[in-house]
Each structure stands twice: as structure tokens, then as C-alpha cells.
Amino acid sequence: VTEAGWLGWGKTHEERIAEANAILDSLGFTKGPDGIRVTPNGTRLSFTMIVQMAPLTAIRLRVAEYLAQNLKEIGFEITVQPLAIMDYFMNAFLAEKKTWGFAHGTYGEYPEPWYMQVFSYLLPYIGLPQVRATGFDETEPEICEQISNLSRSALRRINYNELVEDVKEMIRIYKDYIPTITLVFYQLWIWAYRTDILTNWNPEHATKWGAFGYPQPMRPLVAHELTPVGWVPPTPTPTPTPTPTPTPTPTPTPTPTPTPTPTPTVTPTPTPTPTPTPTPTPVPAAGMPTEQILAIAIIIIIIIAIAAYLLHKRKTKT
């Protein structure tokens, strides 16, 4: 894509290596006697690359060695360290201190639903998409549908060159709508961007840690609102403030004169006849409670039974 200016696009391997070396030279990363570059303050560009080894162990090893060889050609010293799945997860995502410089995981090897989620621009929604995060499908539904169709087409291409053309067309559309598209940022992902072209990059807008240990920009979800450098938003025309209409003062309603209430005649209250007090029925004297009588009877029965047993036992002995 001409507009994007991809470094190394359409060049040979040797031309890309030469271009990368020229960039590092211009930044002051000089090569030492062993060919490894050092920073302006003298730090060697020496790193460990941890690699998740299962599944696809042999393929992943070959890829890691190829990456290490490419980096060595431009002055990086890379030590490949294969790790089992859980060891890789602990080192890549959960370790308190990162002891590695590069991590080669399994992203990009998932089946199509996850692949579409990574692209995150399909309609209907797949996973947590970019359109849902930005509302771009509400403001530009036709453009969003066009991008969605191109994404779906690219994911189903067999021919690589045709896939590239779909992606190029998506980027051409993106560049015209950059001021209105909000991009989501994940802290551990490497995204190439041009600060001399776009402003308002804000990688610190992460408020939640995901399951794999990297912070996700959720609650709020939006991270960036990119605008081209030098672009000034149009100044809205000020709306004249309407003059408030004075509220009319209501005419007071006269209060009606109340009609005097006649004084009621007091009727004499007859003297009540006293009600005769009935003679109380005598309460019988309280006797022994039933529960107490039953308890005494049970005790007597037990005593009689014990006495009969002892008498029987004495007769047996004699």
C-alpha cells in the first residue's frame, strides 16, 4: 500500500537487511567487535527468546531459529529458550520480572473464529469487535459493512496475492476514516504506528488484566482517538442564545368572605344509670397439678417393682 509506506515492502532479503542496518546505524546503535550492536550508553542488544514448544514443536523451533538468524544479521544476539506450555505462560504473562526480550507464543494458530476475532471488524459481531468498541457501525454503517465484507473475503482466500489485495483495500478505506475510528490497544502486542502521521496515541488506558496476563482497555474500552498531525476539527457555528420571554404576572383572585357558622344548641346529657356489679363466682381451691400426681404414681410403681424383685430373689436363695 503506497499510502502506508511499509518499510521493506517489495524488496529482497538483502535489501531489507541493508535498510534495517541503516536505520540502526542512524539511531546510534553501533556494532562491537563480535558484530553485536550496543546502545549509545553501551548496553549490548542481547536478548533471550522464549518459545512455547507444544503443539507444533518442530515448526515453532524452526521459526524461532529463523527469526534469531535474521536478527543476528542486523546486530542482535538472540538466545532461543524452548519452554513447555505452562512454563511459557508463567514466564510470558505472570512472572513479576521479565527475563526475556522476545516471546514466541501460539497466537495466529487458532481456527477461523479466533482469527476473525483478531481482525475484529466483522458483522455480525465475532467476539469483542472493534466496531462494537467504537460505534463505527452506527456512524458509518455502509463503510463498516464494506470493511466487514473485505475482512471475510481475506480470511477465505486461498491465493496469497488476492488476500493481500483485500487487506490493501481495507487500509485504503481506513486512512480516510482515521479521525473517526478509535483503535483498541493491548499492552503486550506489538503494533507499528507513525507518531509523525497520527497523534493521540494513549497506551496507558488499560484498566483490566485479561486471562493471559496482558492489560485490556476495558471499563472504559476506548484507548485511542487518533487524528492526523496538523488536522484541526471544524469549529462549530455558535448557536444564538434565545432571549427569554418574560413570564406574565397572574392577577390575584379575591378571597371569598366566609359565611358565619351558627352556634349549635347544646342538648343536656342524661345522667347514666349505674350498672349493677355481678357477684363473683368463688374459685375452687387450687389442688395438686396433674403432672405431679403422675410423677408420684410412677415413682410408687418403680418402688413396688424393685421390692417385688428383691423379695423374689431372697426366696430363690432360701
Name the features.
three-stranded parallel sheet, Dipeptide-binding Protein, domain 3, single chain, 318 residues, two-stranded antiparallel ribbon, 9 strands, mainly alpha, 37% helix
Describe the structure.
The protein has nine helices and nine strands. Among the domains are: 13-104, Roll (Dipeptide-binding Protein, domain 3); 111-180, no CATH class; 182-231, no CATH class. It has a three-stranded parallel beta sheet. A two-stranded antiparallel ribbon has the order 1-2. The chain has helices at residues 13-26, 57-73, 85-94, 112-119, 130-134, 136-139, 141-155, 160-177, 290-317, and strands spanning 30-31, 37-38, 46-52, 77-83, 102-104, 198-199, 208-209, 215-216, 227-228. Residues 110-123, 125-129, 184-191, 217-222 and 280-286 have low confidence and may be disordered. Helix 7 packs antiparallel against helix 8 (160-177). The protein has 318 residues and is mostly helical.
Architecture per CATH nomenclature, i.e. the level-2 architecture of the domain at 13-104? Roll
The best one-word shape is flat
Q: Number of DSSP helices? A: 9
- Estimate percent helicity: 25-40%
Strand order of the largest sheet: 4-3-5
Q: Compute the gyration radius: what is it? A: 46 Å
CATH class annotation of the domain at 13-104: Alpha Beta
Beta strand %: 5-15%
Largest sheet: 3 strands, parallel
Question: What is the number of E strands?
Answer: 9
Report the order of strands and helices. Answer: HEEEHEHEHHHHHEEEEH
Average of per-residue pLDDT values = 71
Structural class by sheet pairing and helices: mainly alpha
CATH topology name of the domain at 13-104: Dipeptide-binding Protein, domain 3
Question: Going by CATH, what is the homologous superfamily of the domain at 13-104?
Answer: Dipeptide-binding Protein, Domain 3
* Separation, N- and C-terminal Cα atoms: 127 Å
